[in-house]
Amino acid sequence: MKKIVFACISLVLVFSACKKDQSPTVPVNDPLDTTAQVKFTGTFINGPFGMVTGTAQVLRAGNNDSYSLALKDVMISNGPDLHVYLSKEGQPVNFIDLGKLKSAAGTQVYSIIGNPDFTQYKYALVHCQRFNHLFESAELMMR
Question: Which of 59, 88, 94, 128 pairs as cysteine with 133 (C-beta 3.0–4.6 A)?
Answer without folding.
Answer: 128
